[in-house]
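Incident log, structure service

09:12 report received: a user says their structure output differs between two submissions of the same chain.
09:20 pulled the input from the user's history:
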Amino acid sequence: MLQNPNLTDYSAVLAEKYGEVGTPEREENNNLARSYYMGIVLQDARKEEHLTQAELAKRIGANKSYISRIENGLIDPTVSSFLKIVHALGLRVELTRPLN
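09:34 re-ran on a clean worker, output below:
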C-alpha cells in the first residue's frame, strides 16, 4: 500500500492535542464540540426564520444573552429550553433507534 507522507492521521492529531479516546480531556473536548455544533445549527435555523436573537428570546421567555450564549456554544440549554427553541423555530426533534 502506498503511503502519502503529506497525509496526517487525524485521530493521532486529536489524541495528541486532546488526549486518547475515553480520557476526561477528550470527553470534555467532545462536549465542547457538540455544544458549538448545536449552537451553529440553532443559529442557522434562527437566521432562516429571519429572527433576531432578541425575537427568539422573547418567544421562549428568555433574554437575548441566553440565546447568544447557546449559539456561541458557551452553554447547553436544558432539555425543556432546547425544546422551546426548537418549537419557536418551527423545527422538530425526532428520536429514532439506530439501525442494526
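09:41 both user submissions now match this output. Likely a transient worker issue. Closing.
09:42 reviewer note: The chain has five helices and no strands. The CA atoms of residues 13 and 19 lie 9 Å apart.
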